[in-house]
Amino acid sequence: MYYKYEELHSRPSITPDSEIPENLLHLSHSFGYDSGRRGNLQLLDDRTLIFIAGNLLVLLDLSTKEQRYLRSCSGEGIGSITAHPSKEYFVVAEKGTQPNIIVYEYPSLRPFCILRGGTERAYSFVDFNPDGSLLASVGSAPDYMLTLWDWRKEEVMLSCKAVSQEVYRVSFSPYNPRLLTSSGSGHIKFWQTASTFTGLKLQGRMGHFGKTAGTDIEGYVELPDGKVVSGSDWGNLLLWDGNSIKVEICRKEGLNCHIGTVQPFALEEGQLMTIGSDGVVRGWDFESIDTADSTGDGSRFELEPMNEMVVGHNVCLSSVVRSSLPDSFICFAQDSSGAIWKLDLSFTYTTPDPECLFSFHGGPIQGLDASRKSHLMATTTLDCSVKVFDFLAKKELTSSRFNQGGTALSWAPPLVNQSGSLLVTGFEDGVVRLLELYDPQMLHVDTGRDPKGDAKLHLKQAFKPHNAHVTAVAYERNGEILATGSADCTVFFFTVGEKYNPIGFVQVPGPVQALEWSPHSHTDSRLLILCQSGHVVEMHSPDPEAQRPTETFQLPELPSRSFRFRSIKSRIKRQEEIARRQVVKEKKKKEREERLKELKRLNAKPEKEEEEEEDELPAIYIPDPPSPLYCGFYSQPGQFWLSMGGFDSGFLYHCKFSEKQDGDPNQRQDEPFDFVPVHSRDDDPIRSVTFSSNRQLLLCGMHSGFIRVYPLQPGDSSLTSMQAYWALSVHDNQYGHLRHICCSHDDNFVLTAGDDGNIFSFSLLPPEELQKGLQKKRAKVPSPRVGLENEALAQDIEDPAAYSIETAKQKLEKDRLHREAGLKIAAKRKKLAKLQKKFKQLLNDNQSLPEHVRLKPAELQLDRRFSEQAERSKAQRVREVRKQMDWEEERCNIALSKLQDWFKDSLEANMVTVVAIGTDHRVSTYCLPALAEPSSRLRHQRRPSCLDGHKAGQERRKSRFEPTKDSGIEKEDVLRCMQARPSGITLTNRQVEMLRKAAEKAEQAQAKIEKRKQDWARLYAEKPNKDSEDPQDVQAIREAKETIGDLKLKSDKTFTVPEHLRMNAERKIAQLIGLEENICEKQVEMNGCILALRDSKVRLVSQLHAQAQQVQRVQQRLAAHLHRPPPALPTIQPEETPEKRLQYSHATLKRYRVLREQRLQTIEQEGVTHLLEELEKEMEEEEGKETEEETPSLPASSAIREDEETAEEEGTELSELEEELRMEEEVRLLHEQDSLLEQMESSVCRFDAELMLLRHQKLCLDWQLKMADLRQLTLYQELLILKEFERREDSLQENLNGRIQEESSITSDLEEFNEELNRRHEEIAQLHEREKALTAAFQTSLGKENKFEEFLTKVFKKKIKRVKIEEQTGNKEEDKDSDEDDDWDDDYDDSTEDGGAALDDKDCPPGCDPELFENTLQLRERRLDLEELLVEEKKSTEALKKECDTLIKKEKSVKTSRKAAEDDLELINREKQQKMNELDVVVPLRLHQIRFFLNGSVPSDLSPALVLDMTELNRLQERIKQLQAEKSQQKDLYCEARKHHVRLIHDRTMMDANIQVLEKQCKQLMMLKFGRLVNLESLQTLSGNRTLEELKQQKFFREVAYDKEIKQWDMKVEEAHQALMEVTRCNTQLLLSMTNLLDQKRELENKLNARQKKMSRQFQDDRRRVDQEEILRLKGVVKTQSQKAEALRREIGLLSRQGGHVLPPGRAPLPPLAPLPTLRVRTHTRLLSRQGGLVLPPGPRPLPPLPPLPPLPPLTPLSAIPTPANKDHTVCPNSSKSSSRQEAT
Fold it and tell me: pTM for this structure?
């Protein structure tokens, strides 16, 4: 299946509904090559190359040089290309948003497949594997995604992020299909496709540079054994082994393999081929590279190349592709300088030279212009070349190179040069060159010379108007003036003619971007100068004939106007936003009006609409620094259009100069008065603009590499018709900024050039019409100018540092001023010399005069100030000289300090030799170098060991589990009372003190209990198991195992080095340092002794000299024959005080200076050393003379004394007394002489003896030091061996430490999980306890015989769905949506499952206590919270159990890997020990130390012998005896331990029985005291209950109040009794009167009975019936009252048992008790009480509060007492009926 290319490739974008044709521009040819792009050259077959040119893929035929093109499908550029190994396909990886990879078939060029989704923005490299089945791609920023494709299936196999840096290349290994390598900015990475349990995965290892500096890696080559050779920035090769650098390969003597960047690109026939930016191809021996290893301390390997090919100078090779032909050595190389080379890498004698197939510009195109006469185009770039193309014939005509790169180019208009042969080119050094183009074939006709090429460029003139690169050149509209602009903020004007002469220059506010002369439609000729900083300056054309200043070329008087752009884009965006919002408002307003009309039509009430709050408008923003200015052009006189970059891009701004031109141009703020938007390109500025000749087409070159064409109306200077456009992506969209665009002279072609180095030509005519119309035409190259062949070559400016025109003129002016000043100074000096000569003559004449007429010097002095001025100038010069010499003095001091540091301070002590006095023996100190401090740091460094990992694991033992928090439930008292706690209760001080003491006592008891628990816990923790051993024994056994080591010899192959004796490089270095310090310490100690001896000799010499002087004084008083010769006085030798050699004085320095000057005058060849020796000799001679002068000779003094004595003897004779005194004096002097001489001799002998003893000690120390040197040599050899093993051992040790650390971490995690599990179990138990307590509290709150118990229990146990906190904190919409669910949740009840009706727990049922109902709901909420917590805890516990199981399995595997790592490390240690055993150790032995005999004699071969230290042997023998004694001792201890064990078992049995007895007694006592078993600890920790105390206090207060109230009621009752008595008295009187009346009545009745006997029976029957009815009614009343009384008694009993006067729940208060009926009705008083009184029931006092008593009724007659309507009251029969009956009777 193939895709259609016509449907895939990108097309021009055209404004909709416009009449612009799609094929407005037709691609004609590509003249450029993006040589700076990596890997931009691929070979399809032996004659076709492909490369990327902007948005095109160019297929170049090598033989015909014809080009075919494929456009990018995304329209945003191409990232990378590659060819299939079979050359049947090639890949184009594109750029853009989610770009694709398109695989084309060759040679049909049909899209074969499309790979999608490999990266986000662009592909940077693609490559096939060796068999072509897989494709690897890598993306650029921001994802850097590495993807492996099964490209035929269009599927992604593997994908992962490569790195976070730019990747240059990725490739498969040709030897292992599972390996890949990628490299890029500062990195190289090695990949491997690994099979895992989830499938294939890419695993990468980043390369570590180690000590080698990091570098960008452009290329590499995989070797067969897995190694990789890569290049570097500095030119050497890096050999990678694994993911580290094994060695750096360079040439002999440290030379780099290449100069600059190096890339290896192929491995063939035993050679590694490399290319470099130096343009050289070299071949290196593969075997040498593969086996290369570092030599010495460095990591470099020196190797010379086998073959070398220099491609050329100024060549920078970046990639190489090989020919597809078999056995071919032909390669094609990409030159970053802009060329494609053909190379033959056979390296034979017949190998042809490299051939440059194609030459292009290298780098961004800086200048482009087309001829006004023919189809010729000229370009220039920074590669120092100027090229001319025939874009009609599609070929390059000529090329010229210069010393500097070109930056601007313009073709002279026909007004300047009719033939169209003149080019004006600006260069980066500020030089402008006039180049003439001519046809050399025409020159051959005239001269007969053999021409070469179709065209040539001839330098006509070169001048340098600027000091920076030239940015723009432009001819005035009449062709009379040439203007050049530069980045040095100057514009220079020249007159145009046969020779261009300078007019002058002007300064502008910023670097010049472009120059635009006013067109002919303008009246005046003016120059529009566009500056990159946003300034625009308009200059009048200068007058070439005007007079100019001679000092400078600057034109200050030239009229000008300036404009500084101020951003208005933010204001434009603000206005657009306002307009958009207005449109939205209008639209909404219309919709609202229509809606209101509709509602009005339907007679519906309109809804109130909320007004929406508008967002803030975009802020006004002015960019700082200002946006750059890219291009511009005139529209009308004084008006112009500008295109800005940066923030202000996306618009063309119409500007004009302000009338106010005063002030600094840099401070101006000018705004455009109009603008035109560039549609859909808000961030894509216009970089270049040009018009067709009829100005009906506006062609724009965009920053993104697009071409835009706008059709314009004729004369539309305000660009109002700039609406529809045609756009095509041509150059690279990222860096191919289209800076140059122009039309040909006939408007049939459009030429573009961008920063990507590409040059394209487009035709406005279709290729068929173009071929027909121009087939007879060809680009005409101008003929050579007459006399061109005879002209001398114009002088070029090749030095970049040459003076510019202005600088040269200023230099000439400055030289002229210098010459004039020099002439004036010479004239002054000549005049001054004459005056000096004349003054000297006057002085001579004055001296020849007599003294009295001679003038004094003061009189000759005209003015004293002249001499003072001379003195001041002299002092000033002296200060200046001293100031100048300060540097020299400081330099000499620094040089002296350096010499002292090197020769003096580098030694810790100079060699001092002490010479004996009486003998020739001598002893010298050790010459010690100063010890370096940094070496001591090594002893503090240690390798991380397993203990470190274990300690780190222990330090890491912090619980990862945070304590669980109850979600909304805290520990509360579930047994709270139903009544609210009374507030405002204040306890008394006594109660507070009691509570405090009780709390303190409880705390003390609790602390004592906790301490007891801790002691028991500690005791039980220390209790060993039955099978455990003594910890001391275990520790001793472990220490013995660790320290006893392996008892085999070290030479045994199975010898295991103990852990504490294992050696590594660091420990060995520490041993070396310790040995070195010990040696140095011994030497320093010996040097101290020798120096002390030297000091004692100095003191002895001074003492001997003093004693010699005493002897001299004594001998002066003795006779000559009594003189004893004194011993020779010793002197201090120079070698004994070497420090004096470095002491000098000012006189010494002066003498050295004199000797040096003498030596320089005589012999210049001898060095300074001879001078120093001569100076030392002179100093010694002077010291000797001083010593001789200080110490007079003894013979001379004695001779003087003898002469004196002879004179005395000759003079007089002595008396006996005098003779006796003389003899006595003589004896004393002789004794003194002898004693002094003996002291001198003894001192000398003692000193010599000390020196001999010290000499012997030094010899012994020398022997020890020699042994130490041998030991040091052995240690150094061992260190070398340890360093060889260090890398392997470190890796194994690191692996072992990792395993140990991992094991410790797993163990700690496992312990933490177990602890957490235990804690969770405890929490679950606590939650169960709390749940039980909650249920108990509920049961307690119900009480007994509660008729709502069943209902409340169902409410309490009801299961409901609860809304979680997360749902409650959700957004409002979710709350609204979940209202129905919440209602359903509230109604949910599991009681419906039992078939019953749904339980309504929203409202309290009638008769139920509301407070009890609310308490039940609260308890239910707490129960549900507890159940949720239980569920969560159980879930977390299950998760923890699973994690514990996983950790246990992982721990087993880690232990296995740790054991394997320990075994590997042990093997390394054994191998290391064997290597160290092979070292030879020097052990000097004497014959008595050899105890190895064979047949009674010492054998000649001592190799089987064993060398032991005698002390160690003795220690081992003694240890044998100690072990035997310890063995017997251990046996005795074992017997005693067994006896002790039996005794302990018996004691434990007795104690267990005693404990059981005590526990039984304790239980009995608790039952006797408490009646049940109680927890004594809880009893001891009971503290005062403040709530109870407060309730007691409340009870007391209430009792007091109730007592007061009862007293009040008693008083009221008493008053009522008094009233009752008064009423009774009144009633008694009434009863008496009534008795009388009854008596009268009886009499009357008797009378009536007699009269009416017949009527009596009837009256009796009626009365009996009424009485029976009344009796029945009274019986019912009595029964009811008795039931109520019984109920009250039960309630009173219940409340008395509960402890409070509380009404039972659900019972309303009873009404006041009615008076009980009285059965005794025989008296009138009882009858009265039954009728109107209140009878109290018998029993206890009624409960407070009492209801208020009703007021007593007023006294009424019996006949007026009404019958009570209440059935609860007892009433008498109706007396009125009785009286009526009596009356009737």
Answer: 0.56
